[in-house]
Amino acid sequence: MQLKLKLTLLFTLLAGAILALFALIIYFSASIDRKNEFYSLLQKEAITRANVLLGAGVPAETLQTIYMEHREIINEVEVAIYTPDFTLLYHDAVEIDFVKETPEMIREILEKGEIRFTQEGWEVVGVHYVFQGESYILTAAAYDEYGHTKLANLIQILLLSWLVSVVIIFFAGRFFAWRALQPVSQMVEKAEEISATQLGLRLSEGNGKDELAELAITFNEMLDRLENSFDAQKEFVSSIAHELRTPLAAIVGEAELTLSQQRNPDDYRQALGKIHDDAMELSKLAGGLLDLAKASYEPEQISMKDIRIDEVMLDARHELLKLNPGYHVELGFEENFDDESILNVRGNEYLLKIAFVNLMENACKFSADKRVEVTMKVSQGKPGVVFSDKGIGIPEEEMELILKPFYRGKNSRDARGSGIGLSLVQRIVRLHKAQLILQSDEGKGTTVAVNWG
Q1: Domain range summary for the chain, segments of one domain joined by +
Q2: Which of 55, 131, 223, 278 is the most buried (most CB within 10 A)?
Q3: 22 band by pLDDT with thresholds 50, 70 and 90
Q4: Are 332 and 374 in contact (CB under 8 A)?
């Protein structure tokens, strides 16, 4: 069922129920008023009959004749007049004695002063009436044909009015639902135009205040993120292609040059050495891309356990120096720790070691003395690691760009590398709920801090 129809039906059902409730209130109010008014009329008729009989001394037969002549005023009223000892003084000559008064009824009227009840559709009233110091019991009964006819007409009017109102409400609700949901239809049409090649399209945000505007704003923000992701993906793929092409072109070029003519064994060894270096660079790039992909997982998808960052650092130092014997890593502690458990963190040992290796490798690679100082520290009960070098530094205008994948600083493009390192480190650090802080002075060195807490 369409939302438009569902809203229309709900609106119609609610409005119809409210109208039906008001109709019932009107009907029952009219019914109660009719009954009270008719009881009052019966009481007045009974008292009038008693005054004529008792005050004017009109014989009962004459009074009955008067009653018959005035039946158009109140139809077939059965009036009876009794003394408290149940002596009948007067009774209307109607076809049937409908009330059939009893001594018990007379006593109840004397006790209560007045009783009212309905008997088989007839309204009956009993009144204790005092005339010239004497007590009399009056009863009057009749069927309110006129009142019931009016109520029946009222039911028809209310029912017809309710049906007409429900029909009007249905079509009015359908129109207003269409008006209210028109922006949603426009959003759907606009959203259908959006594709991977048209991510620049945006939904209209209307007045920017209501719920639909909030939905459009949220959707547009999601499109902004998607567009940024697509752009980053395109840039990433382009950068990968460029980075892969360079070592592959070097390998192919070296192989073609070597095969172009007969050479001696030393030339072949030299050529194979260059090809080996380029292949190793290619392998390192592929490994870096795999690590970057792993670091891009959601935190809950990565196995975490309690690890000591000093032990991870020692493993990372050992791995770096094994691959680069010419590098120098000075590892120290800012202070003595009374509780070594303070160096425990929740993390993934493999990824954290990759981050430490990358930071130490960058520091050594871009330093003339191939040296990095690594300091373990504790601040406000939380551990941290500081990497310091005296290398070429990072230009101030490149500080925000240096963390992007494949970005390489202008002063570092002569060095071998892919530009993945710092981007990978940042993602790993974020996975471990830590902060990466860079401080650099071009030509003097760089300090990188990884702080937990």
Answers
A1: 3-150, 196-295, 300-452
A2: 278
A3: very high
A4: yes
CB atoms within 10 A of CB 15: 17
Q: Do 101 and 138 contact (CB within 8 A), yes or no? A: no
Could you tell me if 238 and 255 are in contact, meaning their C-beta atoms sit under 8 angstroms apart?
Answer: no
As beta bridge partners, residue 331 has: 374
Residue 122 has pLDDT above 50, yes or no: yes
pLDDT average, residue stretch 191-218:
73
Tokens of 200: 């620049």
Task: Look up residue 380 and give its amino acid.
Answer: Q
Query: In the CATH scheme, what is the code of domain 3-150?
Result: 3.30.450.20
Return the ∠ at Cα 316 (arms to 314 and 317), rounded to 5°.
65
> Residue 147 pLDDT > 80, yes or no?
yes
- The top-level CATH class assigned to 196-295 is mainly alpha
Topology agreement, domain 3-150 and domain 300-452? no
Q: Which of 163-172, 347-356, 397-406 is most confident? A: 163-172
Domain 300-452: CATH class, spelled out:
alpha beta
